[in-house]
Amino acid sequence: MMRHWWLAVLRCFSCSGPRTSRPVRLSCVLCIQSGPGSTAKRPRRTSRFRSMISSSLRMAGSIRATTRRIWLCPVSVKRLRKRRKGPAVFLPERLISARALTGVTQTALAETAGVAQSMVSMVEKHQRDFTEQLAVAFSSALALPLEYFTVTPRSIPRDSLHYRKQSGARVSDTARVHELFSEAFRVTESLLDGSGYPRQQLLAVQDDAELLDVARIDELAQQTREILGIAADAPISNVTRALERAGVAVATMNGHDDGFVKHSGVSWSAGRGEAALIGVMQVRGDRDRFTLAHELGHLVLHSFRRSSDPEREANLFAGAFLIPAPQVREHVAHDATLVDLRRVKATWGLSIQAILMRAQAVEQIDAARSQTLWKQLSARGWRKNEPVEVGAESPRLLFRLLQERYGPSPYSAPEIENEMALPVMMLRSLAPSPSTRKPSSSTPRPVAQLPWAGHG
């Protein structure tokens, strides 16, 4: 007797099941009959449905493999075509970006989708049609909505993005960060369109100099503070909120592997008065604040000009933006100790190392004293684990825009995956739900709390 493989169709991949007129609980992938104990209606035996079931059988190396969500109900196909005002057009370029986003090779994708590797290659090279059947197989294998292959995001050249990353970051990891940021920017533009939220009006620096000096960068950082409505001599209590109020969206881009850890931030702007996005890989409060200020420096200094050393300029801008030169001279003495720098960190929200570099940049600490302090940092193990914890910041703008469109619980809306063309888990990662905890007092508090504060 021929053994039957049972395919558990948990839901229609496009419409989440309840909206389809032909729900299927269990169906035999060989004879397409209702499974044992199933009360579902028998699916319509069309050639398209048979071909999808056949591809699922090729994909089934085990019963576990057969539980993939590969069925697309006729209602979903009809709705997709209606939105596209005609037959759905699946873009081969999106298949390439999907593989880069998920870090999947052509061979691995072909094996999971039940097709030959040469088929994947030919589709990407426009040598074979990107059919609906292939799109369904690929969307299931990559765990992406079918609409992912139909949307056309803004083209962001890889060399135009501004990265803050470690020297050991691999090219493939940077490609993944680029694809994730491109999708985040597409979602940001979609949410901002028609929302009425103000767009960023940052400085458009067009200096001819290949490398700006410290004085010029300090001047531009102070002008940026003024544009963002930040007092010239006060600490910035929340850098994320200051950026979002000015129309610069912030997305969290934390990955689940070491490749994303080696990247700290990435940013891009479509132009003055257009959407701007900063992606940050959150590590700890002080580092995240510096990364945000660093990427803001790229948006201000390098959107309309080229620099011979953009990373140095962005670092100088970040220090000047977070703690202006007059305040460095006021709070950091020429003979400052590490204990003094800890207090400055608690007030201004920079790492001790960033404060030390900032003091060097404005010549408040000479080379000899700086060298001594760096040695003390290393001896105490503070290079990797500094004292004084700076509170983590969480973005809110993107989540609020999702709420405006999909209601108070946007990630429960059945249509969000299809309209945003990204899985809910990826959207949650980019725009997490902000904490609902409210501060107990309206009294201004320092960015961080010293460990010995309040103890005698």
From TrEMBL:
Pfam families linked: HTH_3, Peptidase_M78
Gene3D superfamilies (alphabetical): 1.10.10.2910, lambda repressor-like DNA-binding domains
InterPro entries associated with the record: Cro/C1-type_HTH, IrrE_HExxH, Lambda_DNA-bd_dom_sf, Rad_response_metalloprotease
Amino acid composition bias (Low complexity), ranges on this chain: 432-446
Domain HTH cro/C1-type, residue spans: 95-149
Region (Disordered): 431-456
Domain of life: Bacteria
Family of the protein in this entry: Belongs to the short-chain fatty acyl-CoA assimilation regulator (ScfR) family.
Protein name: ImmA/IrrE family metallo-endopeptidase
Organism: Leucobacter muris
